[in-house]
Amino acid sequence: MQVAANTVVAIHYTLTNPEGQVLDSSQGGAPLAYLHGHSNIIPGLENALVGKQAGDEFEVVVAPAEAYGERDANLVQQVQRSAFQGVDSIEAGMQFQTQGPGGPMVVTVVDVSEEEVTIDANHPLAGVELNFKGQIETVRAASEEEVQHGHAHEGDLAHPH
Questions:
Q1: Which of 88, 90, 121, 134 gives 13 a disulfide partner, CB atoms 3.0 to 4.6 angstroms apart?
Q2: pTM to 2 decimals?
């Protein structure tokens, strides 16, 4: 069976940045299972896997536009330190969940001064070219329930529930 819309695909992968640093990997763990055609993984990787089948290896370079988008300077803002009530220590690199115009979002602290905290709401991988290398473990038809729910269900990857 080939990777296509409404198939559940299980892949093993290693994700690296352009410098070759490993950002994420399924090696040594369970493969990543996703429902194809439902935006469960980044578009650039999903598009590259179409037509492949179990056992096929892949090596894909995904541009930021097909991954987490380009960096948006408007998403870097300064807020009053008082906005972090109840947080004793605020340091660069810390992440907080907050309510944005489109719902919950994660912001990363970039800089801290006496009065203000600079936060960045860009995804940490925005503007980064992503390199995926891996192999397709299994491809199967999704169950009606998985298609209705829009994601693969946990459990036996080889057979639908």
A1: 134
A2: 0.82
